[in-house]
């Protein structure tokens, strides 16, 4: 008796069962139920799970490519996912603003920077694919009406100023225009809809998903029904990382307990990634979880300080409260800086968050500076004596450190930590002083499911793409290696979302 | 209609289907078929997949605990797995030989050494569990008739000499006695039998496995039948690591291509681990793959040099062929040394494997020394001039380096790399010289499925143990963190195998 026959017989057997009865067979212990038995409640050409950068870019591109019915399913009560609260920083090599400002840069140079930060295990081919298409992705946001600050920033680990930032200094400056554009193109947007499993056809191809409606993420309950949703070309999983899944992140790094701060929305729990592992996706680099070295222990989540300090690091010094001395290159890559900050501890091992000191009139150039002061997560001092007294920093070595650093500002060479001083030119550390405290927060998961340059998800046993399944954005892993450079997530998410849509449109999913 | 009813109806429907028809439903796209439909071909109390240290220790302990029928299924044509070709090095704190020799050591001290090597992400509770039971495991090998060299070794990263080594200098010195003991206790041993999937009962509990008989690993084909094998208490997966799965190891680290040497048997491909991910096991630390810094580029696999150099590192120097200088603490942990060796490259980045130089009459104390010379993977020189000429090392700095190192031997303090000099006492580097070349080979996977202290495998979505499933040995991940210390695999495998048997015997699997 062939599988076909079994399934046909089983279909008859199951006729008359509602969606609920069927879901009981499928979930949670089986990794997918056979589509032969499925009564489809909804059918679309392209089904997208999630609504962040990757999902929205995919939805828009799918429409551009002529895919007729496109639906987004988002588990949270609002659209935009974790993308909407990220820093809104977008690295693009050879961008319009670089050309205007005469900044020399290239795909090769950006890839080289990322490979270095990836510490030998990044996926060069994927990084190159993203860098080559980053301008297209940026253009999509221009077309949607996204607005950016009128200057480029040089972020930690980048060898050139190549980073745009939204005027609102967060990702919503991109997700909101993209959301509107997707709506205007006829993408169906469904919120409080949680994907609970895959529906598989012959040979394991993904033909659809089960969707629980009226989902309340805070209580983790669905008050609606379970729909069998069919995807004619592909299901794209673009659900982000798992930074808020405490058990999973502690399995990878026992120090990342629930007490450790996290910049992500509560919904970043990774269940869709775990479902993909259950159908054979290859887990890659889950152990590499990134902490953001620009975060403040004085506020929750990403807060106001993160973007403030990302902007200010090039012309600031980070000093130990215990020694008054610098302890890192302030624009090294994220891992280097986070590790250096975490070493700031007293004799008993308790954290002593270091200080970032900036000349107030340089700091004030960033839109968040006033909010940082207003909400009491940053401090302004007229004299170094006041600063030292407030934070109990030894004054004499601090003074000497600032004088030494200011000589590096003049010479253009940081003799202590080799910090590139280009963006610090003319910007002495001097009164009045702005100070924020620094302590890393869990920010980004380099790990996820292995994907190829078509956004296909590879099967761990056959090595071949799982038919009908695509993944893009933070849920995909292995691209960045040990440590992702700042502002490289938006280009990755958008380019891989666009790529997924093209794969689906070409009938290659 | 309840799941129970569906399954009952389905069972009727499927009656009359042979094992082959059923297997077609189960494999490879579904993560497990329902046991309700299963015609069991074989039934045991305890089913063990694999036949290395963990599997054999579990089988023997299961019998001791009164479990009646115990069966081992091994995919290769011989028993012992990768364990049989490992170094036969067994670290035990507070062992009989330490007591006899007056070596101060403790569980705490061994755990502390391992936590350091694990670089902050090892599982302290599991390490402690293993260290606390290591003496029991050692005793099991004594009882089985395993024989050890009459001295302890202090391996890289260990703060005390605590490592036994089998007289045959490989793991077969343990697996063969254990195999015989298991047989004598009535354990059923099946070879060329490959597990191809899990059979799940109500609520997803593992009730058995599918076993393909007459399996030919070299051709990856089964010429026998597919058996449905029932496990009344538990299935224990003890199948080792995935060092020989090129695609999977390259997904984690693109530099580990098929050109990179590997110390493991061909069967170390990790499919059983991948099957466990398909039923919801948590992937942990797959990105951390260890290379052995004691391997030689002049022979295949583990070869003769590995154990030779493990023994000799404490009283040898490792020098760069380009500079004639030392470049590492010769008994640092494995990752530290492997990374240091890999940095030995010419201006074009091509490997220039460094040299390990030992006084011949110290080197000769190791049983492999003669074989190293016989098979041309080591060289003996009467003068330093001959050595330098043969390997094109600059003589003057090499000579100065050796003189400097010999002063450290006298003073007991390595001023260059902080190597603990206790075991080097009185052992100058002098003529005649023995030399081997060093280059890391892929050796061990720190990653695998997450397990707890009862060897239970946790479900990624519920966090609870997957009922009926246990895992032990290298297939389990997360215990050692970033880098495992040498000689800590045998205690882990055996203790966790014994633990698994006790969990099964207590009816807690």
TrEMBL record, chains A, B:
Q: Looking at the keywords, is Manganese present?
A: no
- Keyword Glycoprotein part of the UniProt annotation: no
Cofactor dependence: FAD
**InterPro entries in UniProt:** FAD-dep_OxRdtase_2_FAD-bd (IPR003953), FAD-oxidoreductase_2 (IPR050315), FAD/NAD-bd_sf (IPR036188), Flavocytochrome_c (IPR010960), Succ_DH/fumarate_Rdtase_cat_sf (IPR027477), TAT_signal (IPR006311)
Per UniProt, residues of the FAD-dependent oxidoreductase 2 FAD-binding domain are: 45-490
Known PROSITE patterns for this protein?
TAT
Q: What are this entry's molecular-function GO terms? A: FMN binding; oxidoreductase activity
Which domain of life does this protein belong to? Answer: Bacteria
Its signal peptide is: 1-31
- Name the Gene3D superfamilies for this protein: FAD/NAD(P)-binding domain, Succinate dehydrogenase/fumarate reductase flavoprotein, catalytic domain
- Pfam families recorded: FAD_binding_2 (PF00890)
The record's keywords, sorted A to Z, are:
FAD, Flavoprotein, Oxidoreductase, Signal
Q: Which PANTHER family match?
A: FAD-DEPENDENT OXIDOREDUCTASE 2 FAD BINDING DOMAIN-CONTAINING PROTEIN (PTHR43400:SF7), FUMARATE REDUCTASE (PTHR43400)
The entry's family comment says: Belongs to the FAD-dependent oxidoreductase 2 family. FRD/SDH subfamily.
The name this protein goes by in its record: Flavocytochrome c
Species of the source: Ferrimonas balearica (strain DSM 9799 / CCM 4581 / KCTC 23876 / PAT)
Could you read off the lineage of the organism from its UniProt record? Bacteria, Pseudomonadati, Pseudomonadota, Gammaproteobacteria, Alteromonadales
